[in-house]
From TrEMBL:
UniProt cross-references to InterPro entries, sorted A to Z: UPS_plant, Ureide_permease
GO molecular function per UniProt: allantoin:proton symporter activity; ATP binding; uracil:monoatomic cation symporter activity
Organism: Elaeis guineensis var. tenera
Membrane topology classification: Multi-pass membrane protein
Keywords in alphabetical order: ATP-binding, Membrane, Nucleotide-binding, Transmembrane, Transmembrane helix, Transport
Protein name: Ureide permease 1
Family classification: Belongs to the plant ureide permease (TC 2.A.7.19) family.
Amino acid sequence: MYLVEDKGGAIALMLAALSFLGTWPAVMTLLERRGRLPQHTYLDYSLTNLLAAVLIALTIGQIGDSKPNMPNFFTQLAQDNWPSVLFAMAGGIVLSLGNLATQYAWAYVGLSVTEVISSSMTVVIGTTFNYFLDDRINRAEILFPGVGCFLIAVCLGSAVHSSNAADNEKKLSDSSNKNQNTNGTNGDKELSNVSNRAGVPQDLEDGVSDVSYANFNDEKAKAGTAEFLIQLENKRSIKVIGSNTCLGLSIVFFAGVCFSLFSPAFNLATNDQWHTLKEGVPHLVVYTAFFYFSVSCFVVGIGLNIWFLYKPVLGLPSSSFTAYLKDWKGRHWALLAGLLCGFGNGFQFMGGQAAGYAAADAVQALPLVSTFWGVVLFGEYRRSSRRTYVLLAGMLLMFIVAVAVLMASSGHRKT
């Protein structure tokens, strides 16, 4: 079994995790914006997310001979370590609930703001727990100023969303007035009914195909315009124009609470700070804990999304397991997202076991990556106001400072 024990290796793993964990939400968002049902996407994602944990356990977790205090993966499966296993599985459950919630929140408040708020809450709450669980191996005088930067980012993230939402409302209002001036009352009617078009025949990858809406689909609108927002609404699976902003933010905060708990639970699973294991039973190695963590994440994700196929939420159309099996549009992207998230979480835990889980929470700066994809792929914040751009710049600056500070607080776990 291979273990990362030096600080340099741990930081390299954290940076790799930051890249992977910041990219997979963009892939999932891409599919939702193309109209693929989030239930279908999450079922595909869950398969490869578990596959990543199995691959890590069967390769890195099996390298070399098993040792009494550090057994390899197969040896540890047969040991009496269920208290630690339950902590690992509890972490997987709350992570699965958080990931599932963010999949819906992305549609309501955007990829960037969702990741900012949920990740910042994870650091503020989860890092504090991990600091004390890790017997304070991270330097508090450096660590907690970094946590403060994430807390500031929460406030800035909320302000960015509020400002951008106001910008979008103004764009739609201006477009409505323009259409009303040129087409009588048809313009207002067209815009006010945009959120009620779920019944219009759609192509799940190409959006609305009905010729009566040709004025919005003859050519692709420029990102950031009112026409772009309307085209996007026609395509996406979750209709959000006219929805309650508080609903989206509530989902985000629920996800943030879930994310705050998964890393401390994993910490307890691998280090047994509460002394729940019997005397002589070795602690769970990170690869075994990650396997159980991913199994519970898989079970919750599969179970809830099969339920949502038949009992959908947030106005989504119902589906069936047969329809899911036949839905191949975008499946390769959903499978890729699962692999990215699985390996990203694995690398985060490997780095945290070496340098402290509080420092490893630096990967929660993944909004740096997600915002990049949000701007490049989805046109978020295009043609927004100067106030929105200033707030966005401040938010990103806080994340850059926080990443540097948290990584600087890295310690070294005694083995």
